[in-house]
Amino acid sequence: MQIIVNNQAVNVANNSTIIDLINQLELDAQRIAIEHNRVILAPDQFDSLTLCADDNIEIVNFVGGG
Question: How far apart are CA 64 and CA 66, in angstroms?
Fold first, then answer.
């Protein structure tokens, strides 16, 4: 099925969770914030929230520096 991630279409398997998407995109779950359909998710929701077709996901990476 297709979802939108940061304004780009991405195909994911049916019944994928947010953590499945994170793994598919090879991201570090400890260094990102995720918004699902305009709602910011807590990290403990990543493995329980199942994606649906046409969901809109925004992912922001935290960057450290000095």
Answer: 7
**Does 66 fall in a domain?**
no
Is there a contact between 64 and 13 (Cβ–Cβ < 8 Å)?
A: no
Residue 64, pLDDT score: 72
CATH of the domain at 7: 3.10.20.30
Which residues form the domain of 25? 2-61
C-alpha 32/C-alpha 54 separation (Å) is 21
Residue type, 39: V
pTM of the model: 0.91
Q: Does some domain include residue 46? A: yes
- Candidates 63, 64, 61; CA nearest to 32 is 61
Q: What is the mean pLDDT of residues 27-51?
A: 97
